[in-house]
Amino acid sequence: MSTAMDTESTYSGYSHYSGHSKKAHRQGRDRHKSPRSKDGSRSEKSVTIQTPPAEPLLGNDASRAEEGQDDNWGETTTAITGTSEHSISQEDIARISKDLEDSVGLDCKRYLGLTVAAVLGLLVFLTPIAFILLPQILWRDDLEPCGTVCEGLFISVAFKLLILLIGTWALFFRQPKADLPRVFVFRALLLVLIFLFVFSYWLFYGVRILDSKDTNYQGIVQYAVSLVDALLFIHYLAIVLLELRQLQPMFTVKVVRSTDGESRYYSLGHLSIQRAALVVLENYYKDFTVYNPTLLTASKSRAAKHMAGLKVYNVDGNNASGQSRAMIAAAARRRDSSHNELYYEEADHERRVKKRRARLVVAVEEAFTHIKRLQAEEQQKAPGEMMDPREAAQAIFPSMARALQKYLRTTRQQQYHSMESILQHLSFCITNNMTPKAFLERYLSPGPTLQYDRDRWFSKQWTLVSEEAVTSGLQDGVVFVLKCLDFSLVVNVKKIPFIKLSEEFIDPKSHKFVLRLQSETSV
Prior knowledge:
Blueprint: H1 2-10, H2 22-32, E1 45-50, H3 73-76, H4 90-138, H5 148-172, H6 185-210, H7 217-244, E2 251-257, E3 263-268, H8 273-287, H9 297-308, H10 321-334, H11 338-368, H12 376-381, H13 389-410, H14 419-431, H15 436-444, H16 454-457, E4 461-466, E5 479-483, E6 488-495
Antiparallel strand pairs: 1-4, 2-3, 2-6, 4-5, 5-6
């Protein structure tokens, strides 16, 4: 336990490695602050997809890395705790108020739809029972006796209602994955169809049975059975429209992240644009590597440095267009050597990454050699030396911490991993007898967004921008954009081409060959 306490005290700065002084924090926030979009196009339609509650993706906080840190950032950085100073403008207040109003509207729309569906479902299940019970309550003495066939229909109605209840629960009562901007057209059509269907049955029942007080009780029960059968057929129709129709791939979509150009391809069936956007987002969180804005700062700073070297002066106040063009051409020739600078920068970065990766691998392998799982008989011999997985992780973490810090700093991944998350992952690997290579898999290469802390890297709100109505189906050439705080996903839809296959039969007896000999051969 003393080793664990020393580990916590010695490497407490690792959990605050992303913190800086207030000045550096403000500079980083200003440098990474994205400019506001000023799109003058009026033909695009923008709607919002609300995902489950979480923090905004990559907000302007102290977790963003600065380029001015040295290699010993784990020991020399200053952690700022307590209260922090923030400034807020009227535009921010208006934007926050608008977001709150939008979220309240989405919640009201969601609960209204659930309420309507629940009331309609309750009406559907109670209607056959009411058809059977009302004659028994209102004119019981006038009814004809119910024979064996009628009693058998009771069992049929009971089991069909049970099957319908289970099918409805499996198809409709699911945890919502997202709040879509518009209603699901097929689901709304099914609700309208069910309402009209039940209303027409009640209308016929009221006119032909309640008003005339029909005494044929077996016919009344048969009428209720026909209603349940029709409801089962509507449930089959719902399965076809909501589940089976979209299974056959009809379109191929290309998803490109606007910042770094990372792209993926997906096959989709007959879906609306808003539901296709939901499928794209679900696949984005598991297929795309986590968005890292610090990887883009090097290219931006290099471009800014070269643009700053271009200066054109007009001495006499004349046009001097020829002289200006000559100066621009000379400056361009001087900057032609910038590719050499880029080449050597990338080569040096790859060399440093490989070197620190090798150090990290060796440090982790040496740290894991100090751990031994005790068997049942060995636990009784040395009870004072035993440690649980958490204590073991804290004991071996100091020997690998510095190498891990430097590697994460070089690869610009330090904002994704805190000391607590690394200790949890290390204790998990120790508990499950995982090798050092399995432990390092998370840190040697960036993983998908799902691998990291949900509250920090999941976007709370996405905006769907499309020139077509979001309830319309996918078509060839449709392009829509999914925007969040720091980047956007551009989705291009292409229809899978029609493929025509022809058949050609080959007779197995036709596979006959002869050996052609020449005088020069050795055969």
